Inverse folding.
């Protein structure tokens, strides 16, 4: 499938052709993903606008495994400056199924009177082109316009095609050729030494392009005025439709860009909401653990109040020393160490006051302070060990209670 005649001169028809082939559905649909068709269309429009010598087409491509698939291609010529003259190299650029995430395939397409230079650093004998730009293809920055520009630069360094040496035609005396060919290209085949330098093949465009209205027959002067009016009306309607479609396309492009921007904003907000939900779930778990701890401590306090409420109901004179009882030996040891530590603190305070009042000699003060400090150190060390053992026992008890609550 090819676009209608005059596509190079009419960007609207070019856009209409690309939109048509990329929007097809069913068995004839092109194998490109929906999220890349818009970018493929933009790449091709930029390519054909920058290089009008290339034409968009759809053709069947056969893979090495024999599988055939219908693909887009850019068929035409690439300009190549060489020794002050611009030549045109015929190429075919195939847009594979994975384009634009992967590079296209580029083939040099020699005609019958051309040969591919062997060896060539960028073109294989089969015509496959391999330039660094294709090897370093990066999505989405790489594009077809830059590719063709690189092809032109590399071909200018090393032309890939040469015209074959053709024998001079025999001129008939009965029918001489009044217009001999102005192009006398010479080539060097097989590495032979030629007197004239080899010149790359030049594909020259036709001096008179075909008419976009079909054959070049002269219209009859006796054409029906109704037919002329009808044709003019149809042309006017077509122009109006194209103008309306161009305006609608611009509006739709703006809407698509707005939708893409909205989609990016929604995705960013979705990530923020997911992050907030994860943080809230973490806080909920932490609050549930704290709630379980509060409930467990409340049960412990309620049990202690019920156990000791009967003891203080009928008591009139409460002895301070017997008001609190240690529940185990570790608690009793902790109580004794704490009492001894505080008693030593009181004695040291009394010695300080006596020294200030000169009631105690200084040497006796130092000797007593040294003995009391030593004894206080042992009491405090013992209290620290007892406190650590009590914490371990309490953690074990709390873990057992939490398992009970979970069950």
């Amino acid at each position: 499938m090819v676009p209608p005649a005059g596509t190079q001169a009419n960007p609207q028809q070019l856009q209409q052709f690309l939109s048509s082939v990329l929007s097809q559905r069913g068995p004839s649909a092109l194998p490109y993903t929906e999220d890349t068709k818009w970018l493929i269309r933009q790449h091709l429009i930029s390519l054909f606008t920058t290089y009008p010598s290339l034409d968009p087409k759809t053709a069947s491509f056969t893979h090495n495994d024999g599988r055939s698939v219908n693909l887009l291609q850019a068929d035409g010529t690439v300009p190549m400056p060489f020794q002050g003259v611009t030549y045109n190299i015929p190429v075919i650029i195939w847009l594979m199924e994975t384009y634009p995430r992967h590079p296209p395939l580029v083939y040099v397409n020699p005609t019958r009177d051309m040969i591919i230079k062997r060896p060539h650093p960028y073109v294989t004998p089969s015509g496959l082109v391999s330039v660094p730009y294709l090897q370093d293809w990066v999505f989405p920055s790489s594009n077809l316009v830059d590719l063709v520009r690189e092809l032109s630069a590399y071909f200018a360094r090393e032309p890939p095609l040469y015209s074959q040496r053709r024998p001079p035609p025999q001129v008939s005396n009965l029918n001489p050729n009044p217009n001999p060919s102005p192009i006398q290209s010479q080539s060097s085949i097989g590495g032979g030494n030629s007197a004239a330098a080899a010149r790359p093949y030049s594909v020259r465009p036709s001096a008179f392009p075909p008419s976009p209205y079909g054959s070049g027959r002269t219209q009859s002067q006796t054409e029906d005025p109704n037919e002329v009016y009808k044709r003019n009306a149809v042309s006017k309607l077509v122009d109006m439709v194209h103008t309306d479609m161009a305006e609608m396309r611009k509006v739709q492009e703006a809407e698509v860009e707005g939708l893409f921007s909205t989609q990016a904003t929604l995705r960013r907000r979705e990530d923020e909401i997911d992050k907030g939900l994860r943080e809230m779930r973490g806080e909920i778990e932490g609050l549930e653990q704290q709630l379980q701890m509060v409930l467990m401590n409340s049960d412990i306090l309620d049990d202690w109040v019920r156990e000791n409420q009967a003891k203080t109901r009928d008591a009139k004179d409460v002895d301070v020393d017997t008001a609190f009882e240690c529940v185990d030996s570790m608690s009793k040891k902790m109580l004794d160490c704490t009492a001894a530590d505080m008693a030593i603190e009181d004695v040291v305070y009394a010695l300080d006051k006596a020294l200030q009042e000169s009631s105690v000699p200084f040497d006796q003060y130092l000797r007593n302070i040294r003995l009391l400090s030593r004894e206080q150190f042992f009491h405090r060390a013992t209290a620290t060990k007892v406190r650590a053992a009590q914490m371990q026992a309490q953690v074990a008890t709390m873990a057992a209670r939490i398992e009970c609550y979970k069950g």
About this structure: The longest strand covers residues 68-82. Residues 226-317 form one domain.
